[in-house]
Amino acid sequence: MKLFDNTETAFKLKSDSELERAYFLFRMIQSQPMVRIGTAVTNFALKAHLPVEGLIRSTVFDHFCGGVTEEDCLPNIEKMYDKGNVYSVLDYSVEGKEDEAQFEDALNMTLKTINFAEEKNAIPYAVFKPTGFGRFLIYQKLTEGEELSADEKSEWDRIIARFHKVCKAAVEKDVPLLIDAEESWMQDAADRLIDELMETYNKDKAIVFNTLQMYRHDRMDYLKKLHVKAQEKGFHIGMKVVRGAYMEKERERAAEKGYKSPICVDKQATDDNYNAAISYMMEHKNMAIFAGTHNEESSYLLMDLAKKYNIATTDKRMWFGQLYGMSDHISFNLAKEGYNVAKYVPFGPVRDVMPYLIRRAEENTSVAGQTSRELNLIKTEKERRKL
After folding, report:
1. Residue 336 and residue 85 in contact, taking contact as beta carbons nearer than 8 Å
2. How does pLDDT run across 64-95, given as a tens digit for each residue?
3. CB-based contacts of 209: which residues, under 8 Å, 6+ apart?
4. Which among 141, 187, 256, 327 has the fewest CB atoms less than 10 Å away?
5. pLDDT in tens, 200-234
6. How far apart are CA 61 and CA 115, in angstroms?
C-alpha cells in the first residue's frame, strides 16, 4: 500500500458523523452547478441577514474552519497535535476590508497569533495577507507603476510600518511568518517589500516567508533572481510554495484587458513549475521551504529530495502544509512518518470568512480529480470501519 492510501491514519481523528459530513460536502463540491447555486444562495442569505449562520456553521464552516476566534480553534489544534503529530497555522481569514481601523485590527490579530505561536508548541508559524494591512488599490498602483498621491504615500508608509511591526515581533518571539500571495496585478509591490524584509530580518535564518504561486509561469525567474540577491546581500530565503488560488480571475482579467495571461498554459505546466521550484529550493542551503500542496506526486518528490540531500524529516527548514478539512491522507500519513506537517486553520466570524470558503469550494470544483480522490478515500474508510 502506498503511503497516502492509508485511510485509517488519514481519518483517525474523525468520528463517524464527521466522516459522513465530509462525504456529503465533497459530493456537493464535486458538482459545479451545486457550487454555483450554493454560492449565490449563501451570498443572498447573508446580505439579506437571513438566519443561516447556524446552518453554515454546522456544515461547511466547521469542516473547513477551526472556529470563530483563535481560542475556539484550540481544541481542534490540540487534538491534531496530540493525536496526529500535525501542527497548525492560525489563519485569520477575513477578506476584502478597506479601512484603516480594519487594517489595525488585522495587524493586532497577527501580533496576537505570533504570541499564541510562541506559547503553543502546536503552532509553528504565524500568517497574514498583504491586503489585510492595506488597500488593494495601493499595491496595484505601485505594481502598475502609477504615481501615488500625497495621501496614498502616507497610506503606503503605514502599510510598510505594519509589515515591519509584525516582522520585528516575529524575530523577537522566534516565530516564522508566512506572507500570503494574492492577485498578480498587486503582487509586485508586495514582493518588493517582502524582499526588503527578508534582507533585513533573515540574516541568521528564514523568519520572513514570501509565497510563490507556481501557476504563474514567471515565478521561477523571480526565485532565481532573489537567490542571486540573497547570496550577494547575505540573507536567507523563506518561501511558501503553492500552486495558486486565483486562476479563473487571473485568466478572465488578462482576456478582458488584452494582456498575456500570467498563468501556465495547463495543469501539467503548473505541476512541472511547482516541482522545479521545490527541487531548486532543496538544492540550496540558505533556503527554507513551506510546501503548501495537496498534490501527492509533489509530496513524494519532496520526500525523495530530502533523502537525496540528507535533510532530516524533522529539519525545521522543510515543512509540508495542507488546508484544514482537506487532504488529511497527506497530512496525517506524512506526520506519522516523522515529517513536519502543518494544517492552515482559518478562523474568523462566519459571514466574514465566507469569501474564503466560497473560494475553497470553487477551487475544489476546478480540480475535479482531487475531489474524487477525497471521496474515494472517505468511501474506503467508511467501508473499513464497517468491517
Report:
1. yes
2. 999 999 999 999 999 999 999 999 999 988 76
3. 125, 176, 177, 178, 179, 238, 239, 240, 288, 290
4. 256
5. 999 999 999 999 999 999 999 999 999 999 999 99
6. 25
